[in-house]
Design brief:
InterPro entries: Host-pathogen_enzymatic-act, N2O_reductase_N, WD40/YVTN_repeat-like_dom_sf. This is YncE family protein. By secondary structure, this protein is mainly β. It has one domain (27-316): YVTN repeat-like/Quinoprotein amine dehydrogenase (Methylamine Dehydrogenase, Chain H), CATH 2.130.10.10. It has no helices and 29 strands. Strands 1-26-25-24-23 form a five-stranded mixed β-sheet, with no helix packed on it. A four-stranded antiparallel β-sheet has the order 2-29-28-27, with no helix packed on it. The two termini are 24 Å apart.
Length: 322
């Protein structure tokens, strides 16, 4: 899950949740690689030449060469990895291990062999790293915790309530957006004053999120029964704008560097939606099959990860040669 991916998307700022429904689109060709193991997350390294996957079916994270999606060496993290991100310099992987298997925050030195484990409560769920790489924010049922990466010091939690599922840091570094899965809301949190500024109502069961339009908008997926869309949220006005239709059970979401394209993994029907963020419509729909749950955008193509098998699939964002 990559926290604050921002761009300059030209969203229309008006309309209800039912406006701008995306329509059926052409099917994109996919280039799958061999399956790995059950996978929960993917994070791109700086420069997007490599990525790391969280191998939830094992206790490892694995390096992937983006050019051909070939898996490389794996690193053990001592528990089943749930969420993953990298520091901006690409030297450290931050991994949350799951509640059922040694919950904690694991810091993995990708340039050497060292690993460190930090206690972040019994039920950590999501994390994001600051732009300067000095701190991580971890969201869980205990609240939102700040971790100083140099020494592993943990500040007391910011109370959130509910069950956080994803967190993204806004570009100003002073606020965070957090999905509240049980509260059907996106929380806007003031990190300096340590309080929730707004609870923005969304469709039920908000799950993953990605930022767009230079951090002024958020795309939120929903994993409730029968969910078929992502919510576009205006973070400036503090309201949901509309629902953009996707496939069934949307899970992971990512936005390209320019903020013009979003990639959504639809775990319920084995598809990946490529959304045009200017119009809110489908640009195309890829069908890798399986249960895609995590996505990343590297240049002009996306990468989708099958949550059940670890299968990696290249998804072109535009028509024609990649």
């Amino acid at each position: 899950m990559l926290g604050a991916m921002t761009g300059a998307a030209g969203w229309a700022a008006s309309g209800s949740l039912l406006d701008g429904v995306a329509r059926a689109a052409d099917t994109a060709p996919c280039t799958p690689t061999a399956p790995g193991t059950r996978t929960s997350a993917i994070a791109l390294a700086p420069g997007a030449r490599s990525a790391w996957t969280a191998d939830a079916g094992a206790t490892t994270i694995s390096r992937v060469r983006v050019r051909d999606l070939v898996r490389g060496p794996a690193r053990d993290v001592g528990g089943s990895p749930l969420a993953l991100t990298l520091t901006p310099d690409g030297r450290t992987a931050l991994v949350l291990t799951a509640t059922h298997d040694r919950p904690g925050l694991v810091l993995v030195d990708l340039t050497g062999t060292a690993t460190d484990r930090v206690d972040v409560g019994a039920a950590p769920r999501a994390l994001a790293v600051t732009a300067d790489g000095r701190h991580a924010w971890v969201a869980g049922e205990e609240g939102l915790l700040r971790v100083t990466l140099a020494d592993g010091a943990v500040d007391g939690p910011i109370a959130l309530g509910g069950r956080p599922r994803a967190v993204a840091l806004l570009p100003d570094g002073r606020r965070a957006a957090v999905t509240d899965h049980t509260g059907a809301a996106l929380l806007l949190v003031d990190l300096r004053r340590r309080r929730v500024l707004r609870r923005i109502a969304t469709s039920p069961f908000p799950s993953e999120l990605a930022l767009a339009a230079r951090g002024t908008r958020a795309l939120v997926t929903h994993d409730g029964y029968g969910a078929t869309g992502v919510t576009l949220v205006d973070l400036v006005r503090g309201r949901a704008l509309r629902t953009l239709r996707t496939g069934a059970d949307p899970a992971g979401v990512a936005v390209d560097a320019r903020g013009t394209v979003a990639l959504v993994a639809n775990a319920g029907d084995g598809t990946v939606s490529v959304l045009d963020l200017r119009s809110g419509r489908h640009r195309r729909r890829a069908r890798p099959g399986g249960a895609p749950r995590a996505v990343a955008v590297a240049g002009r193509r996306g990468i989708a990860v099958d949550g059940d098998t670890g299968l990696l699939t290249a998804v072109p964002l535009t028509k024609g040669p990649r």
